[in-house]
Amino acid sequence: MSLLSDLINLNLCEYTNKVIAEYIWVGGSGMDIRSKARTLPVPVNDPAKLPKWNYDGSSTDQAPGDDSEVILYPQAIFKDPFRRGNNILVICDVYTPSGEPLPTNKRYDAAKIFSHPEVAKEEPWYGIEQEYTLLQKDVNWPLGWPLGGFPGPQGPYYCGIGADKAYGRDIVDAHYKACIYAGINISGINGEVMPGQWEFQVGPSVGISAGDEVWAARYILERITEIAGAIVSFDPKPIPGDWNGAGAHTNYSTKSMRDDGGYEIIKKAIEKLGLRHKEHIAAYGKGNERRLTGKHETADINTFSWGVANRGSSIRVGRDTEKNGKGYFEDRRPASNMDPYVVTSMIAETTILWKP
Amino acid sequence: MSILSDLINLNLSDITEKVIAEYIWIGGSGMDLRSKARTLTGPVKDPSKLPKWNYDGSSTGQAPGQDSEVILYPQAIFRDPFRRGNNILVMCDTYTPAGEPIPTNKRNHAAKIFSHPDVAVEEPWFGIEQEYTLLQKDVQWPLGWPLGGFPGPQGPYYCGIGANKAFGRDIVNSHYKACLYAGINISGINGEVMPGQWEFQVGPSVGISAGDELWVARYILERITEIAGVVLSFDPKPIQGDWNGAGAHTNYSTKSMRKDGGYEVIKTAISKLEKRHKEHIAAYGEGNERRLTGRHETADMNTFIWGVANRGASIRVGRDTEKAGKGYFEDRRPASNMDPYLVTSMIAETTLLWKP
């Protein structure tokens, strides 16, 4: 009813200086995003000026009931596309009362890696291609798919248009504008090969902000699907069979790679990644073995390969980069349910800090 | 229809000085909110300048038919988020024509306690965490729950997002802004452990205004669920079994507790509350025995326990307070259907006036 949206859309700036801050964190499973809101007396632009907060960790599998406080440290601020005005979203990470990061806090170690002087001076850039599948509520079957059956085979859906090819565009487009509004560096969107699957890209982002921006974008996406009455799935292989999985290809470059002669740096970096393939794969998302089969534009999980313009390899180098002798490369191994703090920092660590 | 909302949203300020005042009171059950509106000749900001009014007490279980007038004394003014402009909500309490508070009037006695010099000098602050459950209209089954069945067990819902985890966020978010607009000191909101259950917090509020603000926040919430076509429940244990109940945890501090050395004052206060456990429990909400079982983050009704960061205790002290040696504590015993005038004044009375 129009009255409820009048209230939801009230612009409080005319009546009060108070703002609402939605504190966001990742729960005990490593993929469940949680949030709650508090009132601040005036607008705040700097995360360091936001108060720490706490929540009941026994309700998110992160603390026992008799010692349940988990502390939220604000790390990044974005504008709130739902409440608008001067209201904000705050990406936080999680600590014990004595100041130790919880085991599920992946941001903490990532931040250490990114502030290492050798990493920081290389200004690592990331562009993350987040794929995801939309499901119908209650039945958990992909959006647009007939109940009890399947749509026509893959082919027409990639970047497709039309009511029989594109399912859920409202969600995707609302998300795109909402992220731009929020201040997230969202660089594009496209419909994916499997019907009901979509992708958005965030980047280029420097260092730790890649993870902050991807998590904020995921939060906004799930809030939007909540409004739309659909479910968002980050499962890497939502439907077995001749249907594409969902990944989070991670594009990467350092200052040296972007400078003249960078192509040699790229090849050395890829070589190092090849030597740590098993370690990376273990951290690249649960269930990835169902996706990385060697078919459907993936490389087999047990094989490390790289190639120019090769979508069937673990790592793909673009033709532009090869031609210019500098640029970036794409790690195609991470699954859609990867933790961007883990993946981005691990790539930086292996290529810049690790010695074989 | 757009024509009806054009009329509802008419801004009368351009056309007339007249304002509409919605007088709100509590009916005979102690939990049923009632209201009716009248036109005033011009804007009013001071409750003492508002006229007393009256209503038919025989229709609310508060007076016999042959002598039915109950008098409304205006006590607090808030901006009306539904009518906006210069229109107001007026929180009232209820008296006989002879000027006696009627038995269901809990505010009168609370106001006396808060104006006692020994209480007033301590500036008692309250922060009340009001939990509530949203129910589908007509079937009275929680919002988002399948008819004839149950959702997946508790775990994913606390501060959760997504169409399969958060049910009714529009109500919660419009309530948040509406309360801020109204001038209520609403400090935050969160999704609760049981799906379809939510919480908002009001405070810190001083003395009698804690009760006024909470009752008006409840009024605004039920008006919003009315618009949304959903039913609001303050029952302390709406669903039997492995589902959390709903409480109204009451956070409390006095000037002495907030100063250096306050932790000792807090411990003394808690020991006084322990001695009057039975009396407090009796006043903390009907049906609380179904909720205070010792499970689901409660302490058993017949036991008094207190502890730092212990959500299974009757009274919980935060780690911040313990560390700083001063602060506040949380009485976790009150049920969601408690009367805030009664609970706040009783806590003040026991800790500041009562001698063991």
TrEMBL record, chain A:
GS catalytic domain: residues covered: 106-356
E.C. numbers: 6.3.1.2
Top-level division of the source organism's lineage: Eukaryota
Gene Ontology CC, one term: cytoplasm
Record field: catalytic activity: L-glutamate + NH4(+) + ATP = L-glutamine + ADP + phosphate + H(+)
InterPro entries associated with the record: Gln_synt_N, Gln_synt_N_sf, Gln_synth/guanido_kin_cat_dom, Gln_synth_cat_dom, Gln_synth_gly_rich_site, Gln_synth_N_conserv_site, Glutamine_Synthetase
Catalytic EC class: ligase
Subcellular locations according to the entry: Cytoplasm
The keyword Nucleotidyltransferase appears for this protein: no
Domain GS beta-grasp: from-to ranges: 19-99
Subunit structure: Homooctamer.
PANTHER family: GLUTAMINE SYNTHETASE (PTHR20852)
Protein family (similarity comment): Belongs to the glutamine synthetase family.
Name of the protein in question: Glutamine synthetase
Organism expressing this protein natively: Flemingia macrophylla
Upper lineage: Eukaryota, Viridiplantae, Streptophyta, Embryophyta, Tracheophyta
From TrEMBL, chain B:
Keywords: ATP-binding, Cytoplasm, Ligase, Nitrogen fixation, Nucleotide-binding
Pfam families registered for this protein in UniProt: Gln-synt_C, Gln-synt_N
Reaction it catalyzes: L-glutamate + NH4(+) + ATP = L-glutamine + ADP + phosphate + H(+)
Compartments it resides in: Cytoplasm
Domain GS beta-grasp: 19-99
SUPFAM superfamilies, per the entry: Glutamine synthetase, N-terminal domain, Glutamine synthetase/guanido kinase
Domain GS catalytic: 106-356
Gene3D superfamilies: Glutamine synthetase, N-terminal domain, Glutamine synthetase/guanido kinase, catalytic domain
Any one GO cellular component localisation term in the record: cytoplasm
Tree of life domain: Eukaryota
Keyword Cytoplasm: yes
Principal subcellular localization: cytoplasm
EC number: 6.3.1.2
Molecular function GO terms recorded: ATP binding; glutamine synthetase activity
Subunit structure: Homooctamer.
Family named by the database record: Belongs to the glutamine synthetase family.
PANTHER family found in the cross-reference section: GLUTAMINE SYNTHETASE (PTHR20852), GLUTAMINE SYNTHETASE CYTOSOLIC ISOZYME 1-1 (PTHR20852:SF93)
Official protein name in the record: Glutamine synthetase
Organism of this sequence: Flemingia macrophylla
